[in-house]
Every structure is written in C-alpha cells, then in structure tokens.
Amino acid sequence: MIEKSLHDLAREAEFVAFRAGGLEFCINIMSVREIRGWTPATVIPRAPSYIRGVINLRGVVLPIVDLGVRLGLPGTEPTARHVIIVAQVGEKAAGLLVDSVSDILSIDDTTIQPTPDVASNLARTFVRGVIAMDGLSFLERVMRLRPMPVVMVSSMTAKGTDTAVSALALGAVDCVVKPTAENPDSFDELPAKVKIASKVRRRKSSSETEPRAPFSGPYQPAGHVVGIGSSTGGVEALISILTGFPANCPPTLITQHMPPVFTRNLAMRLDKMCAPRVVEASSGMQITPGTIYIAPGGESHLEVTGRMVLTCSLRPGPPVNGHCPSIDRLFMSMARTLGPRAVGVLLTGMGRDGAQGLLEVRREGGRTIGQDESTSVVYGMPKVAAELGAVEAQYPLGRIGDTILALTASRT
User: Fold this and answer.
1) Catalytic annotation on 283?
2) Among this protein's residues, is 353 annotated catalytic?
3) Out of 66, 162, 328, 353, which one is annotated catalytic?
4) Phi and psi at residue 318, in whole multiples of 5°?
5) Closest Cα partner for 251 from 214, 294, 191?
6) Are 301 and 271 in contact (CB under 8 A)?
7) Per-residue pLDDT tens digits for 354-395
8) 30/262 Cα distance (integer angstroms)
9) Calpha distance 242→212 (Å, rounded)
10) Residues 280, 296: Cα–Cα separation, whole Å
11) Is-catalytic flag, 372?
12) Catalytic residue selected from 5, 231, 240, 333
C-alpha cells in the first residue's frame, strides 16, 4: 500500500520533501495527514527491520515505517530531531519515520527523470525518479513556500543578466556579478550584500508585490514628471507599480541601483510586462508621456534637463552615496528643472541615497511619496527621507501606483 501511495502521482501534485539516510526524497502530499515529532514506539517482536514499532495516536494504533531502512539505506537510531509523516494508506494510516522534512513542493510529473545510481542498495521499487529543477524554478518555490533572503550570483552574459533580473523579480534581495578579467574584484561587495540580506525579513508573496492589471479608468496626464528611486527589493516593487500604469502614463524616470547591462535587461523585461513603453535611457532622449526611462548602470547619473522640451541627460561623475547612477542626482535635477511639476517616489533600499534629493523636490513645490516600512524589503532610504521631512506621505506598496496617477492626472 505504501508503494501505491509513492507511485500513484498526479500530473501536478504537492510533495513533501524529506531527508532519510542522508539523501533527499519527496513523497506525494495528497496522502499526508500530518507531520509530527518523533515519539518512541512500542517494539513489535519479529517485525521486519524497517518497522520501528507502533505508537498510539489519539486512540489509533499507528505502525512506524523507517523509510531510510525501507529504501535500503543505512539505518540510525531515532532521536528527538527525527519526524514522523502520518500518511493515509488506503483506509488505514501509517507513520513514516524520516530524518527531517525540508519543504513542500508543487511539482509537475513531467519533471521527474529516471533515477541515477544514487545508492547501490536503494530499493528501486519505491523510487519513481529524481526531480530536475533549474535555479529560477527552485527560487520560485522557495519564495512562495518558505521565503528567505537570497543573493543572486550571475555572469555578465546576456543569459546571466536576464536570469539575475528574473531572480530579482521573483524576490531575490540583490545580485552580484561574477569576477571577470575586466572586473576581477566584483566579489569584494559580496560580504556586504550578504550582511544586508541577513537582516531582511522575507514574506510570502502577497497582492502587494504581484503584477497588476493596467489602469483602466479615464486618465490624462497633466504635465508632471515622475521620478522613482529604488534599491534592495526594488525590482519587485517596480513591477508592482509600473504594471498598473496606463499606456499614456506620466513620463517616468527610474534610478534602480544595478550593475551595467542588468538595467538593460530590466528595461526589456518591464517593457514586455507594462502597457507604457519602457526603455533604457540615453542622453538626448526626449521625455514624453507614455514612456518609462530606466537609468543605465555604469559611470553616469541620469538627470532631467531642458525647459520647453525635456530630455534625459547621462552625466559622468563619481558615485554619490556610494552609487552610480544616484537617486539623489535624479531627484535634484527634477527639483531644479521641474519645480512643482515633479513627483518624487522613494522605494525600498538600504542607505540614504535619494533622501536629500527628495527633500529638494518637496522644497521646490513637488509632491513626494515614500514606501512604508511594512512593505519595504529594506526600510532604509524611505526612513531617512521621512526623518529629513522629505516625505509628504508614506504608503504601502500596493497603493503607490494609484497615488502617483491621482497626483499626475489632469483635473479637466
């Protein structure tokens, strides 16, 4: 009967991932009633070696099957660290003794591949195959079922940067570029990013971070320009906000702290997801409604220039607040050039970049928004801005997009 519960898998089903005998396995969760800690069992004389005995579970006599031994793996004496998976077997129940339960996974049956020679004496009749899963698929399951801080390490190749942006969209905290001949010291920032990630409290996905349907009501821009600054956790936040913008959204400039090339992939990804056009900014590019401009990572800062005709300007310069491009440089240029037509938005991120610039926007009569603490992956930049008096109002992530549209809509 246990063999049947292991073999009769649906095309897509929930599985419990567990360890037994030092190896990782999955069992179909459709037959699992509960998972409980190890309880010493009453030994049954002359029982097979894989039967540890029986326990009394709320008046039901439950036989305990040591899955590691049953699978032909070396057995160990159960301790308080072991757990019992209480599984329904036909009309009866059995306790499956394992080392630990590590996760709950949704797995399509087509991803199960033939079993390699993982153990010479493994009881093959109980093993359907192995699950092959790429890094992004694994990350998606981790962030959905057991959210944790993740730092993505990626190459600078087109495929590598696209994977990194996808990982950030799924909820990875940050990304680090692999060392190259041109950039041999890229791992120098890894310890600091891991330290930042260790302080992040990841939550299961919610409506706050989900892509949204484009705004469907009547909207006409009133001549405002929106600037958005984001850092750690910013890709998720940007997707949540920008996917809700209508095709004729206010012109929007974004500085997201990212390495070169990554920003190009971010712009391409957002362009596919959003109703407005999304591009990586270049010098001289005219700023018009219906377009979102992403500051390229590298050695230049994105600024707004012009009076009658507004254009993007990439200004070379040293890092500001440790970043190039810098959010402060974007916001300060908006304050100088646009005055009350500027709307500044500061999202999740570590440090203080953008806080002083947002204050300048507010001093020049512009409107300013900060992401609140409860929805920020890292409540750093918005917190500093609020302490400086730069933030007119703080909102949870799910309300920021609609607030931007309300502030920039024509009243006629």
Assistant:
1) no
2) yes
3) 353
4) -70, 160
5) 294
6) no
7) 999 999 999 999 999 999 999 999 999 999 999 999 999 999
8) 41
9) 8
10) 6
11) no
12) 231
